[in-house]
Write a structure and sequence with these properties.
Elements (H helix, E strand, L loop, with lengths): L3 H16 L6 H18 L5 E5 L3 E5 L13 E4 L1 H8 L5 H6 L3 E4 L15
Helix pairs in contact: 1-2, 2-3
Length: about 120
Amino acid sequence: MSSPCDKSAAVAAAMAALDEGRTPERSVFREAVRALLTTLADRAPGRSVEVRVPPYGAVQCVPGPRHTRGTPPNTVEMDPQTWLALATGRLDWTQAVTEGRVRASGSRADLSPYLPLELE
């Protein structure tokens, strides 16, 4: 099991690679995405929104009515680079949605109140 320090290191390593114009190693990218998704779920507990960052992970979060079957009415999906940029505060939610980097649907799909995140 990884510690919060390991998770912070994965996020830092992934961001450093992206800053240098490189794609992070798959395992580092996966760990960074999942660490930040877990942090989002901890910060916004609930099951009314599904946040998807294929191919690395998805979480249900945000308080409200719980969704149990089929495609959730409130979904957010983006690529891993966009997720890391949003979660670390390098990209603004409104800008990401306007530019089409985030696909959000449903009345609860605005994650801006919960971003950026900090790993504990």
